[in-house]
Amino acid sequence: AQSVTQLGSHVSVSEGALVLLRCNYSSSVPPYLFWYVQYPNQGLQLLLKYTTGATLVKGINGFEAEFKKSETSFHLTKPSAHMSDAAEYFCAVSDRSNFGDEKLTFGTGTRLTIIP
Amino acid sequence: DAGITQSPRHKVTETGTPVTLRCHQTENHRYMYWYRQDPGHGLRLIHYSYGVKDTDKGEVSDGYSVSRSKTEDFLLTLESATSSQTSVYFCAIRDNRNYGYTFGSGTRLTVV
C-alpha cells in the first residue's frame, strides 16, 4: 500500500524567504504526485501535479516541485514567500500500477505560517 | 473546471440518526470519491465509485455506505451517526482527460 509522509506539521517562514515543504512517498512504482492547498474554511485547490515527463513541475502562485525518484520525494518550493501563501498544504499520491483502482492517498498536511 | 457540488454545506444532527450527503457532478466523470478531513489526519478515503452501481471501500469505511444510481450523483450515508463522525466531508471527481482530481467545497457535519 502506498503512503505519504509530510515532514513538519507546521512550518513558519518570514515574508520574502524561501518556502520548502517536504513530501516523501512509499510506492512500488513511481506514482502520480500532487500538491493541494487549502485556505481557511475552503476546499482543496490543485497547486501542481506530476504524471510524466519533466521532473520539475511548475504550478500556480509561483510554486514548483521536483520529482526525485531516487529519493522518493516530491518537495514543494517557492523562492519568496508572500503573506497570501499562509494556508495548509497537502501532498498526495495516486498509484499508477493499479489500473482501474486509482485513488488519492494524502499526507497529513503542513500548515504554513508567514511571518511579516 | 468540472462542475461538482456538495449538499448540504453544513449539517448538525443527533447521535443515532441517519444522514445522507450528496455529491453532484455535471461532466459525466466515471470516478467519484468521498473523503473525510480531520485535524492531524489529512484527508482519508471513505468510499469511491468507478461507475454506476460500482463502488468500493476506502481506508475508513466503517459506519458509512454509498450509492451511485446515476453517473452524476454519489451519495454518502451514515446509517446511525456517531460523534466520531463529526468531520468535514469532501467529494472529488477524477478527470481522465488530464489525470486531475477536483474537489467539492465540502460538507461540515456535526454530530451532537
What does it look like?
The complex is a heterodimer of chains A (116) and B (112). Chain A has 116 residues and is mainly β. Chain A is 0% helix and 51% strand. Chain A has strands at residues 3-5, 10-14, 19-21, 24-26, 32-38, 44-50, 56-58, 64-68, 73-78, 87-94, 104-106, 110-115. In chain A, strands 2, 5, 6, 10, 11 and 12 form a six-stranded mixed beta sheet that branches. A four-stranded antiparallel beta sheet of chain A has the order 3-9-8-7, with no helix packed on it. Chain A is globular. Chain B is mainly β and 112 residues long. In chain B, 0% of the residues lie in helices and 61% in strands. Chain B is built from no helices and eleven strands. In chain B, the strands form two sheets. In chain B, strands 2, 4, 5, 6, 9, 10 and 11 form a seven-stranded mixed beta sheet that branches. Chain B is globular and about 40 Å long.
Features:
A: about 120 residues; mainly beta; 4-stranded antiparallel beta sheet; globular; B: mainly beta; 7-stranded mixed beta sheet; 11 strands
